[in-house]
Amino acid sequence: MADEGEGEKADKKVVHVYPLVKHSDMKEEMRHEVIELSVAVCEKYSSNYEMAAKTIKDTMDKKFGIYWHVVVGEGFGFEVSYETENILYLFFGGNLAIVLWKCS
Amino acid sequence: MQAAPKTKEGKHKKTRSSKLKNEGGGGGDADDFDAWMKSRQLIKPDDQLDLTDAELGEEVTKVLTPTNTNVIRNLVVFSFKEGEFVPAPLPGNTVTLISFPGNSLHVDSEEARLQIEESDEIGYPLPMPNYSVVEQRESILDGEEEGEGEGEGEDDEKSEAGGKQGAAEEEEAEEEEDEEGKQTEGDQGATETEPGGDDEDAPAGGQQAAAAPGKKRKLINQFNYCERATLTYCNPKRSVDTQTIPPPRSQFGGTVLQWIIYDSYQEDFEEQQKISGRTSVVRGRSTKKTIKKKTALAEMLNRKYLRCWQILERMINQNIYDDIGNDYRYWEDPADEFREGEGNLLPLWKFQYEKTKKMNVTEIVFNPAYYDLFAVCFGSHDFLKQPNEGYLCLFTVKNPSFPDYIIQTDCGVMCCDIHPSYPFLIVLGLYDGNVCVYDLRDGCKEPMYVSRGVNCKHGECVWQIRWGPDMSDGEINFFSVSSDGCVFQWILMQNKLWVTTIITLYLENEVADGPDGTRVVLKTGGSCMQFHPTDNTVFLVGTECGFIYKCSTLFSSKYLMTYNAHNMSVYRIDFNRFDSNIFVSCSGDWRVKVWEDMRPDPLFIFDLGSAVGDIKWAPYSSTVFAAVTTEGKVHVFDLNVNKYKPICVQAVVPKRKNKLTRIAFNEKLHFIVVGDEKGVTTSLKLSPNLRVMVKPPKKQLYLDQTTLQISKLEKLLSLVRELPEGAVIQDTATTVRS
């Protein structure tokens, strides 16, 4: 029993870092691309969320048309209106939340 | 030419200097330019001569000659041809400073004339057509409408539009010349006979050129062209606008906190693990299932296809063998009417299978349920040349080209039997002593039952196999006889083949001395077996020693009867279809003997001149039987017609190369099939004389054929029985020599 308990604890301590899509209505193809991009950028600017958000936004504007908004942070609240099929709410790295949406 | 500009310059200088001088003297009354000039300090070269007024006023006369003084006149060139210097030719007086090719042609030139003619021919609108009065007026009107007021000259030159326009454009540049042009145009316009307005350069030339081809036409140049313009109807404009639906929007909100992130990761991770666990299990199952399903489906499809193809194959075969098919059913040899007591056989199809071409036909059995279906066993009778495979093919008359069913075994098939009540059950006896049962409904791949183990099989080749009547508890069983001297009964149990020994074929009163004073009872090998048609427990066994034993399945201690039948191995025994007490046997000693039950001596003996492979009673007549010999001949006997000779002897296969091995009568139609040593089964139609039916006597028309046949046989037998033994029946007396 003790072993099992320890095992459970050890399990809980495991920090998952894979990108976890919390909410998205994007098309499959687009979503994959956006997730890939977000992960790459957040890994690059792991200590500078502002830079990361800016980079993601710029890239998204180029790839999928302008009026993208990006939030990268560890704790925030948001209530946004977006053009349908253009939102992605993503957790990444265990402590990071990224919200992308498009709205003109 | 070179000198000219110099001199000009010189003159200019002079005049300028004189002007300066004047101005310097005159002062005040000068225009702006002069005033500007004055204010300027002229730059002089330092070494300029200061000349007095008198000197300046002095006229210096310079003569301009056309001779070029710079030309070198004593230029020589070494000529290699003559071996000396020769004076070079003078370079000439002309020096080209600038060459500027133009695209104008002189109107008189040959080229211009050609061009005009050409344009005439092709109708190229380069030269204007002759103007008529009307055209001119129209053009004027156009001009007025367009409002291209040319300012001056409109009134003057109404008669000549082209000229006017040309002139108007050139007005500013060359006013004087233009005025002259106008004059000429005016003159020409007054006459109104020909279009004027040619360029000043060649008004006369143009006329000449035009006159030459008989038409007068204007040449086009910068002073002479016509411009036309029209204004088309302007489409009214209309503006339309639409408004698209703005892209749909949605609302989304959320809160990001570290614990939310953590929790959602945990949740997702657990879910993933569950799914992965499930899928791995499901996959394992599903793949197996799908494979099974797929194969089953494919098999079903294949069967369907196979069925379709079989039908198609039969149709094709029926078309190909249409004539044979007709013979098979309807042909009756008309010659039979004229030959009393003789018949013949008409060959129909040959049945063979590619893989059994070199094998012997070891058994032919007609299917009891389907009259046109028959099984043919392929193996080898040669002890030394045993193939390592055997076949059982089920042919149908409907498809002579290919067997309907093919069963392959790993050693030669020596015999087979089809169950009378379950026509899909086939039992095979193999050369290696094994027996196996196939269910044709399940396909021909795997046997339903097969004998296994050393004790559960015959020690030697199985020679004949027969389905027995069902046991009292409904179990299906069969009997087999083998060279090892045993008759076995095999019972098809739930999952295995149960074997019991019915009888061991010991030789009577034959005991050999064994080692150490022991005595061994000798056995004989069984070679054929036939059940009594009415008494299911009684059967006959032919042996390799030539004996025929009458045995019973109920006990194995002794034989019911022993016939000392032949001098060599008994090959086949067959019971009469109408009288079960009568049977016939054939043997390797060339003899065919007809026996009656419990009578030690044969009723008839026939010598066929070679080993008799098989013999069968006809199903339609009580006195007809047919035999095949190793000579390749079929012998058909009708004892009612001829007691001493066969009524038909016909060679079916070549004597030297091939031997006939087996024969079978069709139960329904009047044809037989014979098998040979090359794996070919031939079907032969019996001619009418070979199947003579008994005509009922006039007083007894109500009697059916069976009774008549029995009585026929009985009559025949009574004749033979009455005769004292050995007096008539002599082997030599009935020998058939062919």
From TrEMBL, chain A:
Keyword Cytoplasm attributed: yes
Protein's cellular compartments: Cytoplasm, Cytoskeleton, Cilium axoneme
Main location, first listed in the record: cytoplasm
Pfam families: Dynein_light
One GO CC term, this protein: dynein complex
Top-level taxon of the source organism: Eukaryota
Coiled coil: none
Binding partners and assembly: Consists of at least two heavy chains and a number of intermediate and light chains.
Family in the record: Belongs to the dynein light chain family.
Protein name: Dynein light chain
From TrEMBL, chain B:
Family annotation (Pfam families): WD40
Transmembrane segments: none
Residues in WD repeats: 563-596
Highest taxon in the source lineage: Eukaryota
One Gene Ontology molecular-function label: dynein heavy chain binding
Keyword Repeat: yes
Region called Disordered, residue ranges: 1-33, 141-215
Predominant location category: cytoplasm
Presence of keyword Repeat: yes
GO cellular component terms listed in the entry, alphabetical order: microtubule; outer dynein arm
Biased composition annotated in UniProt, kind: Basic residues: 9-19
SUPFAM superfamilies: WD40 repeat-like
Record's keyword terms, sorted: Cell projection, Cytoplasm, Cytoskeleton, Dynein, Microtubule, Motor protein, Repeat, WD repeat
PROSITE patterns: WD_REPEATS_2
GO BP: cilium movement; outer dynein arm assembly
Compositionally biased intervals (Low complexity): 203-213
Subcellular localization, as worded in the UniProt entry: Cytoplasm, Cytoskeleton, Cilium axoneme
Ranges annotated as biased composition (Acidic residues): 141-158, 168-180
Family: Belongs to the dynein intermediate chain family.
PANTHER family: DYNEIN AXONEMAL INTERMEDIATE CHAIN 1, DYNEIN INTERMEDIATE CHAIN
Protein name according to UniProt: Dynein intermediate chain 2, ciliary
Lineage: Eukaryota, Metazoa, Ecdysozoa, Arthropoda, Hexapoda
Gene, per the UniProt record: LOC117569907
